[in-house]
């Protein structure tokens, strides 16, 4: 039997009429912001399917913008976010694509990172692609993200550093463009890694990018 999360029973405290179109949108924005990890000055949102057709009435556009700028799900300012934001260049595009989830969005951040995700219901979300690499990040775990040159031993090197801190790995997902090309690793952790471990990971040869993503509340 599939286990249900608390969000399946009790919708999150939120600003907006819909858990999937509003709270989910804010949480997607927050996760994209955390993954990008730098100041957002320009952001394009591409909304798909139900997000595109009914999202305007449910405040999906407001939720996405608020989330990418760091507003919490229950922030009352979300409903007026377009009047509040002055120094961010933002735009929206609306598409239909049957290959995408009904509540799906792409974030194109500062023209240098594209993050794709879905609002899967009751405020829950899933990030499924980062710069063309598959992902499976739902915000329920602290997650270490790496981009690196694909080569033997990288998984064991990273997992060994985590193990030495007595941190349990909940799941690990890897993807690569080609053998010896750019690869990504997503490590879901039972507890967050400290700055010392993160710095050691960053110092591994041929690691290009790291992010330590805290789980969503």
Report on this model:
27% of the residues lie in helices and 34% in strands. It has 217 residues and is an alpha+beta fold. The chain has two domains: 12-131, D-3-phosphoglycerate dehydrogenase, domain 3 (60s Ribosomal Protein L30, Chain: A, 2-Layer Sandwich); 142-213, 2-Layer Sandwich (Alpha-Beta Plaits). The strands form two sheets. A six-stranded mixed sheet has the order 2-1-3-4-5-6. A four-stranded antiparallel sheet has the order 8-9-7-10, sandwiched between helices. A hairpin with a 2-residue loop joins strand 4 and strand 5. Helix 1 (19-36) runs parallel beside helix 3 (60-68).
- Segments where pLDDT lies below 50 for 5+ residues? 1-14
Number of strands: 10
What is the level-2 CATH architecture name of the largest domain? 2-Layer Sandwich
- The helix tally amounts to 6
CATH class of the largest domain equals: Alpha Beta
Q: Mean of residue pLDDT? A: 88
Question: How many structural domains in the coordinates?
Answer: 2
Going across the biggest sheet, name each strand in turn.
2-1-3-4-5-6
The H-level CATH homologous superfamily of the largest domain, spelled out, is D-3-phosphoglycerate dehydrogenase, domain 3
Largest sheet: 6 strands, mixed
- The radius of gyration is 18 Å
- Portion of residues in beta strands equals 25-35%
Distance between the termini: 25 Å
Percent helix range? 25-40%
CATH fold-type name of the largest domain: 60s Ribosomal Protein L30, Chain: A
Global structural class: alpha+beta
Shape descriptor: globular
Q: Which series of helices and strands comes N to C?
A: HEHHHEEEEEEHEEHE
């Amino acid at each position: 039997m599939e286990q249900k999360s608390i969000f399946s029973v009790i919708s999150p405290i939120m600003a907006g009429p819909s858990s999937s179109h509003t709270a989910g949108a804010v949480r997607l924005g927050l996760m994209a912001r955390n993954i990008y990890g730098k100041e957002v000055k320009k952001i394009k949102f591409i909304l798909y399917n139900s997000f595109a057709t009914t999202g305007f009435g449910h405040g999906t556009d407001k939720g996405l913008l608020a989330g990418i700028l760091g507003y919490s799900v229950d922030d009352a300012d979300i409903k007026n976010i377009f009047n509040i934001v002055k120094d961010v260049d933002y735009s929206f595009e609306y598409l239909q694509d049957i290959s995408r989830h009904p509540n799906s969005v792409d974030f194109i951040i500062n023209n240098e990172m594209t993050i794709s995700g879905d609002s899967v219901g009751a405020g829950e979300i899933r990030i499924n692609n980062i710069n063309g690499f598959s992902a499976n990040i739902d915000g329920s775990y602290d997650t270490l993200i790496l981009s690196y040159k694909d080569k033997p031993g990288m998984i064991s090197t990273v997992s060994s550093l985590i193990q030495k801190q007595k941190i349990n790995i909940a799941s690990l997902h890897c993807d690569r463009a080609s053998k010896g090309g750019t690869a990504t690793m997503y490590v879901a952790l039972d507890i967050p890694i400290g700055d010392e471990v993160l710095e050691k990971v960053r110092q591994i040869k041929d690691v290009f990018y790291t992010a330590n993503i805290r789980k969503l509340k």
